[in-house]
Amino acid sequence: MFNRELSWLSFDRRVLELAEDESIPLLERVRFLSIASSNLDEFFEIRVAGIMQQEESASHPATREFLTEVLAKARALVDAEQACWKNQLLPALAAQGIIFKSREQLNEVDRAELSPRFDSDVFSALTPLAIDPSHPFPVLTNKGLYLLVLLRDPADGEIRRAVVPVPRVLPRVLTVGQGSAQAYTLLSHVIQLFIHRLFPGLELQGSWAFRITRNSDLYVDEEEAGNLLEAIEEEIRNLRKGAPVRLEIEADVPEGEMRWLLQSIGLSADNAFRVAGPVNLLRLGSLIDLIPRPDLLYPTFVPALPPECVDPAKLYARIAQQDLLLHHPYESFTPVVDFIRQAAKDESVVAIKLTLYRTSGDSPVVEALKEAARNGKQVTALVELRARFDELNNIEWARQLEEAGAHVVYGLAGLKTHCKACLVIRQEKGGLRRYAHLGTGNYNPRTARVYTDFSLFTADSEVTADVGLLFNVLTGNLSRPKFKHLLVAPFDLARRIVELIDAEASAAKAGRKATIFAKVNSMVDPDVIAALYRASAAGVKIELVVRGVCCLQPGVAGRSENIRVRTFLGRFLEHSRLFRFENHGGDPVILMGSADWMPRNFLRRVECVFPLRNKALRRRVEAEVIATYMERLGDAKELQADGSTVACAPNGRLAPCAQDAFLGLARRLVPEDVSEPKKKAPGRSARRPR
Length: 690
Fold this sequence. Notes:
Layout (H helix, E strand, L loop, with lengths): L3 H17 L5 H32 L5 H33 L3 E2 L7 H15 L6 E3 L13 E8 L6 E7 L7 E4 L6 E4 H8 L8 E12 L13 H12 L4 E7 L4 H11 L6 E4 L11 H4 L24 H7 L2 E5 L5 H12 L3 E8 L7 H11 L3 E6 L7 H14 L2 E3 L6 E2 L2 E9 L2 E9 L11 E8 L2 H16 L10 E3 L3 H17 L5 E6 L5 H13 L2 E6 L16 E6 L4 E2 L2 E5 L7 E5 L5 H5 L1 E7 L3 H17 L4 E4 L5 E3 L10 H10 L23
Parallel strand pairs: 1-6, 8-9, 11-12, 12-13, 14-25, 17-22, 19-20, 20-21
Antiparallel strand pairs: 2-4, 3-4, 3-7, 5-6, 7-8, 10-17, 11-15, 15-16, 16-17, 18-25, 19-23, 21-26, 23-24, 24-25, 26-27
Helix pairs in contact: 1-2, 1-3, 2-3, 4-5, 10-11, 11-12, 14-15
C-alpha cells in the first residue's frame, strides 16, 4: 500500500498543477494556488502534528526517518508553489495589465501614496510586542501573520527584538496607484515600509514576516466531559497554544534571528521553511474579488433547476410519486432547502429530523429548522460539534436551535455524525408518511455551488423506515440496529462493502460478468483494499475514481493488474461518493453516501450509504455519470504503480472533460426564466428520468 501522508502530498501537488495549467483561466489559477497552500496548512495541522506526536512518544522507531522524508517533500512542494507564483502567475498577471508589487518594487510615488493611508488605516491597529526580560515571548496564534522586528538603541547600541501581529481584520491585499498605473501589494509589505514609526527613538535593523502552524486536532475525552459543548469550546480555546509544527518566514531572515525565533517557540530547525515570496499564499485568493476581470474566470454558471422542482409547493407531491435525484452543483441545491422550508410551514408536517455536519454562515437550513420549531413542530437536530475547523460555527447553531425550541443532540459518544440525512413526517390520509432526503454532501448552500454531490429524495416506505431507525440510533443510542437497505457505519458498512466486493470476485471465478466502479475522496482502509486486490486477482474489472489520498497500489501483476485508479480535478471539488457493483450479472447495485473508504469512516463515524432502488435512476446514473467519468478524460490523471500520475488524455484539458460534460447536461434543463431568458424553452427531450 502507498503511504497515506505521501499520497496526501501527491494530491496537493496535483492541485498545484491546476495553478500551473495555462489552459485554465488566469484568476482561477491564482485560486488553485491559494487552495494548494490551504491544503498544505491542514496537512501540517493534522498529519505532521500526528507524526511529531508519535516521535515524541517513541511509539515507532522509524518515525524520525519518515518525518524527515515528509518534511523534505513538503519543502519541495512549498518551493514549487512559490515558483508557480513568481515564475508563472506574476508574469501572466502582468501581461494582462495586473501588476503585483513586492516591497522592493514599491517606488517613491507608491510610498508617498501609502504613507498617509498607513497612518490613517493601519497604524492604530498595530500592537508592537517587545521581547525582553520583562516581556516574555508572546503566545502566537495558529497561522496568524506576524513581523519579527530587529531594532537597535542608538544610546547604548543594544539590539532589541519585537513581534508585531498583522491584524486579521485588515485586508491582506491592497491597491496602490490609480487608473492604468494601479497595482497590488501585500499589507505586510506596507507595514514593513513604515514599521519604524512604531518604534520612535530606535533604529530599524530589519523586519521579516513569519507565521507558525500549530497542532489543530481536538482532543476531548467524552467519557470525562460533563458537557460536550463546553468541553469542545474549552479545547478550541486551547488550540492557540497547540504545539508548533511549522515555521514559515521570509527567506532573507538572518540565520541567527531564525535560530532565536525557533528557540523561542520550541521548534526544530527541520520544521522551518524559508519562503522566497508571500508567506501566506492563501491570502492571494482575495485578488479574485479585487480584480474586475470576468474574462479571467470560469464562465458564469447558473445551476439547473429541474422542471419537477420549479414549484416548491408541489415538491412533496412529486416525491410521493417517484424518487428524485439531483446532481450538484450542476443541478440546484435550492430543492434541498425548499424540502426543509416547505416542511417548516406545512401544517401536515409533525416532525423534522436532520443531521448537521457543516453549513454556511447564513444557513437557510438552520433558519427553516428554527421556524419549524417555532411553528410547534417536533424538530430534532443532530449537530456535530467536532466537524474539523467548523466547531465554533456548529456550537452557535446548536444554541440558536435550542433557543428556538428544537431538540439538539450531539450523536453517539466517540463517534462523529457525518451522515447527511433529513427525515420529514407528514400526517396524510392513510396515516403518518415519511419523506427523506439523503445526500453525499453537507447541508451547505454555498459549498453546494462548488462541490459535486448527489441528493436523493424518496418516500419509499422501506428506505424511509431505515432512515427513521438511523435517527433513533442517533438519539436513543441503540447498540445493535438492523438496517434493511441502508449501509450504516460503524455497524455494518465496512462488512457489507467487503461482502459486495467479494461477491464480484465469486462471480468472476464462476465465469460471470463482474465489475466494480467506486468514486471516493480517499481510499485508505486496508481491509477494503485487500478485498479489491482479491477481486482483481479473480478477474474483476475495477474502476476507481479517487480524488485525494489513495493507498491502493494499482497495476501490480498478480495483485492489482485489473484495477485502474484515476483522479479528476477541475473547476468543482469532486466530493460525491458513488459505487456500482455488477451484482452477478443481474440488476446492478448502485449506492451513494457520505463515507469514504477509510478506517475513520468505517469505525469512528456514523455514516450512511444508500441504494438507488428506482431503475430509471440507476439507468440515468450509469448512462450520464459513470459513463462520463469513463469516457471524458481531459480532467483526469491515472495513478501508476510507482505512485506517480499521468494525464489520461495526451493533450490534457484540451480534450473533453467530465465536468464540462456535466455542465452541458445541466444547461439543457435550466428553465428559461432562470438564466437564459432569450433562449427557447427546453423541449421534452431535455427531460430525463430523475
